[in-house]
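Need Iron-sulfur cluster repair di-iron protein's 3D structure for a figure. Predict it.
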Amino acid sequence: MKTTNKNTIGEIVADDFRVAAIFSKYSIDFCCKGHRTLKEVCKKRGIEESLLIDELDRAKNNSANQSFDYKSWSVDLLADYIEKTHHRYVSEKTPALRKSLNELCTLHGEAHPELFEINTLFTESVLDLSANMRKEEQILFPFIKKIKEVQTKGLFLEIAHFGTLENQIILNKEEHDTVGHRFKKIAALTKKYTAPAETCNTYKVTFAMLKEFERDLQKHIHLENNILFPKAVSLEKSLDKVL
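Structure prediction for Iron-sulfur cluster repair di-iron protein:
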């Protein structure tokens, strides 16, 4: 896909995930706010469109940093990948991060009171994420896989108890927005995950873990919002349905 100022941020990243690093460099949200066009973002942020497009094109042509073509994957494969890679990541990393943040509040909270807000924001985020992932794994992803099976076998699709997939996805995206907004606050409070110079290694390691967690979360939400969900909705609309 040739990059133009009319493309949305989500479309550009969906076409080649290697460009995500460029948007991150400019603190441009490509996951929760991927619906904005490049023109809109550049105008709002005061970025020269042609320069940003050049950077994006260079990232795409960087053969040393290959990227999976997620857009070409079937919806069932993509749902499995998200669950086994990103859902599992959240589940595995959360306990250690919560423990470390609690320790930082105890050891450094008096000198750095912002740690308490960071801890609260992270705790609220992972609780919401856990509920969101559970709903996806028990309801949304199985239905998406069912849609693919129906298409493959040439069957009729039974209407889900929650109505259309599109309505369910709207709610899911709202939950993503809430978590994404909290992490923007965390990034601001941590000065983009930069630990104060005088602090201990635990402080620095915890902030590095938070930064990695947010980076994985951005990709996680991007794959769902900008690739999986649009593909699944389009597939559902193409099928004949029965009550």
